[in-house]
């Protein structure tokens, strides 16, 4: 999928207008979710159940976990925690466990490994496609293309300037994946009001 609206130049223009509300629980809960996974040595089924539910606390959907292939799911989640990049088939396997939702899975993957996986949701999809339709949001290959584009932007020669414009609004550090994603999310949220 082409993401013509996901460019360094567009992000830089939006970063110049970026701000966050002080009482936004979405912003305040973020570092707590990260701490949960940082403190774990290994992800077990107990952690998957708890973390899947806190991720879905950010969503208007009730979660359904399909844990038939739990050993393989846990193996993949621990691979993500150790820095492995998943392929399409592996993403699909995890997606089928987490409500069959790419959005929910992306949030879980992000909290497990925020440096390699970005959050993917309807606001992000709308920002990068300029479409109101969400057709394609649940396709693993589109999510992987998005991650590739995010890495490309974070490797831009002037990326650090953009990153610093966003990170100064937070009292904690942001990975490039989070800085770019929160910029797109907040920009779409403000433009939709």
- State the low-pLDDT regions, or none: none
Q: Characterize the main sheet.
A: none
Number of strands: 0
- Rounded mean pLDDT is 91
Helix and strand string, N-terminal first? HHHHHHHHHH
What's the topology here?
Elements: H1 8-15, H2 25-38, H3 45-56, H4 70-81, H5 88-97, H6 102-112, H7 122-129, H8 140-154, H9 159-167, H10 176-192
Helix pairs in contact: 1-9, 3-6, 4-5, 7-10
Could you list some keywords that capture this structure?
single chain, 193 residues, mainly alpha, globular
Description:
- The protein has 193 residues and is mostly helical.
- Helices cover 60% and strands 0% of the residues.
- The protein has helices at residues 8-15, 25-38, 45-56, 70-81, 88-97, 102-112, 122-129, 140-154, 159-167, 176-192.
- The longest helix has 17 residues, at 176-192.
- It is globular and about 45 Å long.
- The mean pLDDT is 91.
What's this model, at a glance?
The chain has helices at residues 8-15, 25-38, 45-56, 70-81, 88-97, 102-112, 122-129, 140-154, 159-167, 176-192.
